[in-house]
Design brief:
CATH topology of one domain: Serine Threonine Protein Phosphatase 5, Tetratricopeptide repeat
Helix content: over 70%
Largest sheet: none
CATH superfamily of one domain: Tetratricopeptide repeat domain
Strand content: under 5%
Radius of gyration: 26 Å
Oligomer: single chain
């Protein structure tokens, strides 16, 4: 064997050894980027993925990670480009196909999205991510029973799949089956306490409220506020419970917070107007009903405004 050939083979062997040694480090970096993604630190996650691809442009999982980040940032075309890069290296990769289908769904290319999910299921009938993708489309199109049917099939294949559990909670809530919805919220949290936490608390809070458990509802909504103090809807939800209990001063406190975050909510002004009205504070109620009406609120808001206008001789 010639010296040149020996040197060439040695160089190849050295390169393969370097790649083999490098991969575990890239896997660790990818896991770090995923943790950043889960914490919604998208720019940091993206920076790590870029570094991975500079080290190894064939590391297809990094493209899938970038596609997921793009979807979170509503950059759906970029998501598809990154998914396609991953598919260049692994043409049948279910995660890459699913993230592409998800991006198409949000771009309102429902047929294109369905086509990908169905093609996956034709090859892999137990592909839970594809079943969830089709169920998401059902939820989007308000076919809640169809969504439940697909999700129940998915849960048979993987009883601990957190996305399936969360989607079942959402679907049963839409079907007004609050007991089942709350049950699947609990299961989601048990599997992963950090998965879509704010949404899980919000859904379970509404379920508890409908199931005549106002204390549980308030606790859930408050947990949601700990995660996102700028969620004006959660303040509104708590306020409505206090109003129902006749605790109007407490309701007004939470509605003040809601309006401070989002001052263009006709609902918040209407709800605060109702609380003031119940306390006999008609001037304050008049002001809030007028604001709610001006913001395009319900006929009720405008009706109360006109009624108080006559009462107060405005």
């Amino acid at each position: 064997m010639s010296l040149k050939l020996n040197l060439f083979l040695f160089a190849i062997l050295l390169q393969l050894t370097t790649i083999a040694q490098q991969k575990p480090n890239l896997d660790k970096m990818f896991q770090s980027s995923f943790e950043k993604y889960q914490a919604k630190q998208f720019e940091q996650a993206n920076t790590i993925l870029d570094f991975i691809l500079e080290s190894d442009s064939t590391y297809y999982k990094a493209y899938i990670g970038k596609a997921n980040i793009s979807i979170a940032k509503r950059q759906y075309r970029t998501a598809i480009l990154n998914a396609n890069r991953a598919l260049d290296y692994q043409a049948d990769n279910i995660k890459a196909l699913c993230v592409k289908a998800k991006a198409l769904m949000w771009m309102k290319d429902i047929n294109g999205s369905k086509e990908i999910y169905r093609a996956i299921l034709a090859r892999h009938p137990k592909a839970v991510k594809a079943l969830n993708g089709l169920a998401r489309i059902d939820l989007l199109q308000k076919r809640y029973k169809d969504a439940v049917q697909k999700l129940n099939k998915a849960i048979k294949y993987d009883s601990k799949h957190k996305e399936t559990l969360y989607n079942l909670a959402s679907a049963y809530f839409k079907l007004k089956d609050f007991s089942r919805s709350a049950k699947y919220c609990n299961k989601t949290q048990k599997i992963d306490p950090n998965y879509r936490t704010e949404s899980v608390y919000t859904i379970r809070g509404h379920c508890n409220n409908r199931l005549n458990n106002p204390v549980g509802a308030i606790l859930d909504f408050r947990e949601g506020l700990k995660l996102n103090p700028n969620n004006s809807s959660l303040y509104n939800n708590i306020a409505l419970i206090f109003s129902k209990q006749g605790k109007y001063d407490k309701a007004i406190k939470y509605l003040n917070a809601s309006i401070k975050i989002y001052s263009k909510s006709s609902v918040s002004y209407y709800n605060r107007g109702m609380a003031y009205n119940s306390l006999g504070k008609y001037e304050e109620a008049y002001t809030d009903f007028k604001k709610a009406c001006d913001l395009g609120g319900s006929e009720d808001a405008c009706g109360y405004y006109q009624s108080l206008k006559k009462k107060l001789k405005k």
